[in-house]
Amino acid sequence: MRKPKNGLAVLYLMAIGAIGLQSCIDNTTKKEYASAADIPVSREMTAELTAPPNVPRGVGDRKAKKLIVNMEILEQEGTMTDGTTYNYWTFGGSVPGSFIRTRVGDEVEFTLSNHPDNKLPHNIDLHAVTGPGGGATSSFVAPGHEKKFNFKTINEGLYVYHCATAPVGMHVANGMYGLILVEPEGGLPRVDKEYYIMQGDFYTQGENGDPGLQAFDMQKAVDEDADYVVFNGSVGALTGDNAITANVGETVRLYVGNGGPNLVSSFHVIGEIFDKVMVEGGSSINENVQTTLIPAGGAAIVEFRVDVPGTFILVDHSIFRAFNKGALGMLKVQGEENKTIYSGVVQEGIYNPEGGGIQVMPNGDEDTDISSGTKTLAEKMESGKQIYTKTCFACHQANGEGIPNAFPPLAESDYLNADVNRAIDIVLNGKTGEITVNGQKYNSVMTKQAISSDEVADVLTYIYNSWGNNKTNVTRSQVEQVKNGH
Ligand code: HEC
Ligand SMILES: [Cu+2]
């Protein structure tokens, strides 16, 4: 929405003037100033700052103002994931930091305060600033001090801000980033819901999921070997009760940033298509986009109308990051179904060309039914381990630890230890439906395992006598009894 910068554009406007006079007038009323730097400000107001996923009210048609922004830096311990904490460095007490909303032509008076309990000096580099260091050189501030500097927003768009104090990578990796929006004159078009989401990668001394307070790991950060890749600073910041919401028929606008420090984001919402993307947070609009790339230190604005109810999953489509490192959020949409746009399950059945119930995992060794009556425990353990490695390992993992939200653990499994006949039945016949193992719910499918009674006895004996389980010795006759329905 800027004034044409050269004569050609003006000529062009004149040429189409005859046919497009009305739209020409509409455009030119907004272009009273040669450049945004010339837009005068009237009066003063204090900016509303919000923590993610919220954004402040839009600028609407307000005039450019002197805008007071007060940002406080807080170093504080927070939850990275269940049982794991991290010492975050924050702008305003959240990761990402407080959202700042301005309009083009505003003159921002920015005060950066460094809380006296903090341990380090910090500063701020706002990508919306035209000037050396984006403000960094003027804002360097020690704990217990504050710094003030002014800038004028002359380019509209969505911009990242971040700390730029050495070691810069470490300050960013600890959560020191956020977004500042510069709206055009008259504001962005109205939508029903707006949210603030920012991706970041984290590097901890322990591995993903290791409990306790986890320190920053410089070497992993240098190697770009992230333990966590998350939206809004922690695993689950946008899932379950923290999910963002909308109603069927509403338009949703997401202000999406990427703080990095290292990774670029392939931002995608499963089950939605972005009607519009303001590419890289700038003025060019792309339409009908499935996945948009958000560079480290960059942003994008995505918009879409939600047409059907359900849970839409936000991911970095570098998909291991979503399912194994935390880059997963949820948009919950309520309202009326629209069976034409999406039917839901029309019919559900087990696909099994052989007929019968749950699908069989072919195994090939079905006839090796050698009596185990004479086997010692050590022999059963040996044979059971082999069967486990061949048959169960892919899902339940090498040490029976399972995979969160997908395959339940067999190690120290309360479900397994509670009922041996039930365990036998599961291996013989497979299992579907919701079960709770060690307090976690699973609702998935375990295929029927095509192994002999002896093998079932051996593999379960191996499992019961490993990884902290209750040492049950499962016999072939026990398996036969379950098989025959006793
Ligand atoms: C294809 C993946 C897969 C394979 C292979 C597999 N399982 Fe499972 N298993 C599952 C799933 C999924 C569940 C949970 C089913 C549900 O949600 O109802 C499960 C549940 C179980 C349970 C009950 C829950 C618990 O954690 O105690 C036991 C016991 C079990 N499996 C044992 C085995 C054994 C023994 C083998 C190998 C002979 C095996 N499974 C092979 C996927 C698998
Ligand atoms: Cu800093």
From TrEMBL:
<comment type="similarity">
    <text>Belongs to the multicopper oxidase family.</text>
</comment>
<keyword id="KW-0677">Repeat</keyword>
<dbReference type="GO" id="GO:0050421">
    <property type="term" value="F:nitrite reductase (NO-forming) activity"/>
</dbReference>
<feature type="domain" description="Cytochrome c">
    <location>
        <begin position="379"/>
        <end position="467"/>
    </location>
</feature>
<dbReference type="InterPro" id="IPR011707">
    <property type="entry name" value="Cu-oxidase-like_N"/>
</dbReference>
<dbReference type="InterPro" id="IPR001287">
    <property type="entry name" value="NO2-reductase_Cu"/>
</dbReference>
<comment type="subunit">
    <text>Homotrimer.</text>
</comment>
<keyword id="KW-0349">Heme</keyword>
<keyword id="KW-0186">Copper</keyword>
<dbReference type="InterPro" id="IPR009056">
    <property type="entry name" value="Cyt_c-like_dom"/>
</dbReference>
<protein>
    <recommendedName>
        <fullName>Copper-containing nitrite reductase</fullName>
        <ecNumber>1.7.2.1</ecNumber>
    </recommendedName>
</protein>
<keyword id="KW-0560">Oxidoreductase</keyword>
<dbReference type="Pfam" id="PF07732">
    <property type="entry name" value="Cu-oxidase_3"/>
</dbReference>
<keyword id="KW-0479">Metal-binding</keyword>
<dbReference type="Pfam" id="PF00034">
    <property type="entry name" value="Cytochrom_C"/>
</dbReference>
<dbReference type="InterPro" id="IPR036909">
    <property type="entry name" value="Cyt_c-like_dom_sf"/>
</dbReference>
<dbReference type="InterPro" id="IPR051459">
    <property type="entry name" value="Cytochrome_c-type_DH"/>
</dbReference>
<dbReference type="InterPro" id="IPR008972">
    <property type="entry name" value="Cupredoxin"/>
</dbReference>
<keyword id="KW-0408">Iron</keyword>
